[in-house]
Task: structure prediction
Amino acid sequence: MAERNIAVSGMVVSYEGLFNVFELYKILDDWQKKHNYDKTEKESIEYVKPEGKYIELKLEPARKESDYVKFVISIHIQMEGLKETVVEIDGEKKKMHEGRVTVTFDAWLLTDYEEAWHTKAGIYFLRLIVDKYFYKIYTDKFLSTLRGEVSELSTQIKSFLNLYKY
Result:
């Protein structure tokens, strides 16, 4: 069984106000392409309430770093009370959405995700020893890289959402 090393747990970006949902999706998509993550949409929910539209999206992009290490990021987006509005910006009318958005990030490092070291108990024990004492330097480096990438995405989303503050 692959082991999970948690890099980021429960990092939250919240915003309430005007923003463009499609541009938010585009930022997430562009970031995944830039960093070579495989796009995986785990869940997508959308329904209309009297106070506005509710959208929930769960993404789980992943990237193989080596034959032994894989990066996995869980992105949970909740948008509540979404209402379409038309806003005039610099003399141009643009369709925008008004509501609350919360983006939660979790990230982990999967080691031995192909389960190559699980053939016999002795080999599994050897893998644990190698991971704990010899491969720890590399694991820490991978964790640091993953934390940096999630932080970059979080900052990019914060910057995007703060563009619409008037």
Remarks:
- The first strand starts at residue 3 and ends at 19.
- The mean pLDDT is 86.
- The CA atoms of residues 41 and 59 lie 4 Å apart.
